Structure formats: structure tokens, C-alpha cells
Amino acid sequence: MDEGLLGTCIGERRSVIIPPFLAYGEKGYGSKVPAYATVIFDVLLVDVFNVKDDVQLEVLDIPQPCRRKAQAGDFIRYHYNGTFQDGTPFDSSYQRNSTYNTYIGLGHVIAGMEKALLGVCIGERRQVTIPPHLAYGENGTGSLIPGSAVLVFDLHIVDLHNPSDSVDIRVTHAPTDCTSTCTANDLITYRYNCSLLDGTRLYSSGQDPHKTPQSRNYHSQHCSDTGVVVVVLVCDAGTTTPSFLRSLWVIEGLERGLLGMCVGERREVTIPPHFAHGQDGVLSFLVCLSISLVPPAGSGVPSSAVLLFELELQKGVPEGYLFLWLEDSPEPLFPTMDLNHNRRFPQR
Predict the structure, then answer these.
(1) How far is CA 100 from CA 33, 158, 285, 305, in A?
(2) pTM for this structure?
(3) SS3 79
(4) What is the reported pLDDT for 332?
(5) In the chain, which end has fewer C-beta atoms inside a 10 angstrom radius, N or C?
């Protein structure tokens, strides 16, 4: 049989005819193989490995530029298809419609996968082949993976972050004349797109970040049917924002991303999950700041997702609003609104 298997490829079928002097000889094998019997084996080679084998990596696609590579201690979200070497599938994250989320370098996954994930870029696709001594060994795992099985994974890296990450701000357009920046208790109007790092659009103030303004007011609980929400942003770093306002109306990372912006400035703000929606994600778009008022298909923001905001800052009372009070509206209301003291309500 040793001679008959030499040179066999994975998935190859062979009929191996073995004469008795190379098989069980004059003694045979119990009651199954008589003495001096020629034996014939029909062989299908399922997989093959060597005890000296390491993880094999093949990069299928890598985004350019790759601004960051995974290191030990990072948290990674990735999709995978898992097969044996003969192509038989055994598991897939796509079937569950959910990424596999884990830290790397801390022993949370099999040793071969730890090696396979080190150095990956966001958006990268790679195929990895893991020998059993770096996977589930001689025992396998349950009924899913047999003993001594070689595993093949097709990986797609959705995003990654480190618990020590801060909000990353990249200015994509800076006005030549920056005369006004976001300050405490400003009423701001801004356009935005919010996406996952794999490009999946989650919500948006419009079809394009430079076409439709989005306005928000911490102190208002108004989400209009037209997609406009008013926000007063407390931008002064020394100003204490009540925690219930922060958590209800704006994620902390977006608040940091808007700090100090000039009117007309554009930014790309990358927000790790500990400054966004955390491990729980958002299962539905119910909070004004965290919704698309025309929500996309899907279940919202996934668990532990890194968010990318494209922002453009404007300033002033948004279209359709005549007055805005940061506190409770005054009593009586009409005299305050009668700006010209002519006992007439302003029409525009």
C-alpha cells in the first residue's frame, strides 16, 4: 500500500492491486483475508499532510493601500468558508449571516488560525490550509471534524480594531479660510454617510455626503418625517455633557469626530466599537442619531463593528426652522417670537 499511495493527489482515485508477498503473505489476516491472497484496494485520497507542515497562506485579494495589519491583541471580525482538502464543506459563517468575532494572539482560536490572521489587512481575502496538528489534532471535534483532518479556510476580513484604539480623524478637505469652528452649544448642521469598513452603507443623511444636510439637537427629541433632526452639539472639551444625552443622542466617537471642525470642512472619522455601539451593536434603527430615517435592509449595526463616518460641517438653523431654544421654551412664547415687536408672527 505504501508503494500504491506514493504520488497520489488529493481527490485522486486509484485501484491498487497488491500481491500476497507485499500484502498479508502466507498467514493472511484473520477470517477476512486468506493466506496467499492478492488484495485489491479502491482508494480515494481525501487529504494529506506531513507532521512538519506549517500553515499555508495564499493571498487572494488585498486592498491598496493597506493602512493597518492585524497584530496580537487585536479584535477581528471575519467571514469564512471551511472545507476539507477534497472540497467538502464543514462550516460557514455566511450561512449564519454573522461574522466570526475574536481576539487573536490570545489563544481563543486554533493555533493555525492564529497564524493565519496575523498580518491581515481590512478587506483582505486569503485562503489558508491548516494541518491537523495546528487544528483539532487526532481527535477532531465532535461529528463536525474527523480526527487528523486538514482544514481549508477562505477568509474575508471585515474589520479589526484594538481595545486601545482611539477615534481616528482624517481631514479630507480643509477650507482655506477657517473662521468658524464648532464650539460649545453651537447649533450645527452636517452631512454624513456611515458605513462599515467593508463598504456596507448603514445610514446616511442623503445619497451623497455632499448633497443633503443633516442637523441634530441634543436637547430636542424630534425626528421629523423628512429626515431632519436638530442637534446642538456640545463641542467644548471642558464642557460636561449629561451622560443620558450622550448615550441617547450621539455615540461618543461621533462627538469626538465633530469636535473643532471648521464650517465647510470634511472628515473621515473611524470609530472603534468601544466608542460606538460596542459588543451589542444596534438591532434596530430607533434612536434619532443612530438611524437612517429610511433604514436599509438588515438588522442594523453588527456587534463589535468599527464605523466609518464621512462628515461635512455646516452651521446655523436648518431649513424649515425659525427658532431654536437650548432650554425649555420661554413663557409666554409669543412675545419672545415677536422679534420686531409689531405683534406679528414672522413667516420666514
Answers:
(1) 49, 10, 23, 12
(2) 0.72
(3) strand
(4) 81
(5) C
